From TrEMBL:
InterPro entries: THOC7/Mft1. Keywords: Coiled coil, Nucleus. Residues 117-219 form a coiled coil. It comes from the Eukaryota. It comes from Papaver nudicaule (Iceland poppy). This is THO complex subunit 7A. The keyword Coiled coil applies.
Amino acid sequence: MLVKGRKVAGRGEEMAAHYAFGPLEDDTIIKHRLLTRTTTTRGEPPLKKIQKKFISFALEIDRDADNYGTCEKMYKAFLQEMATFELPLLKSKAVIDANLREKENFNELQGELHRQISQTQADIEDLKKHLEQSKIERQHKEECEAIRRLISMQPPRSDTQKDITELKKEIAALEAENTAGSRTLELRKKQFSLLLHVVDELQNTIEDEQKSLAEELRIAMEEQKISLEDASGGTEAMAVD
């Protein structure tokens, strides 16, 4: 049993509390007192009382004197002491049985609590998964809503189709104009090539005519020269004569 520590004042300081027994010795003493039904440090232990009653009863029986009444009296006192000692034991047994039942109930309750905790943890994990799935679905819904708003901001399909038709017409007109321009350009290329060919032919013809004219001029000059030479020769001949 624990003994309260004394406080000793000295020079304004307190000494630490100390105990007569340690924890292990204290447990041993408590177990011994429970077994011997000695709950206090005062008075005689019950087992010693029973032992004394039994020894007194046995010694009285061993006597040869006519003490039947005394023996019966001691026997009844011994039985009364035994009953007095047995009653706390029965109470202790009832307490132990109740504690065992409480322990079993506690173990069952603890097992049930563990099962409930495990089930709760599993439910929490499932709820986490459902929460993540819900977040994903909500994000998809928000994205769909944003797309729907963008679509609603666009003009009606009929107007868009009308614009597409107009654009197709403009594209067809531009393609036709491009085709006509390409044909005109090709025609101009052919005409320009023909013009270049004609100019080239005309230039060649002019060069040939210039060459022919120069040749004719040269021949005419040579003929004139020959004529002049012939005329000079005739004059000289006539002068010699």
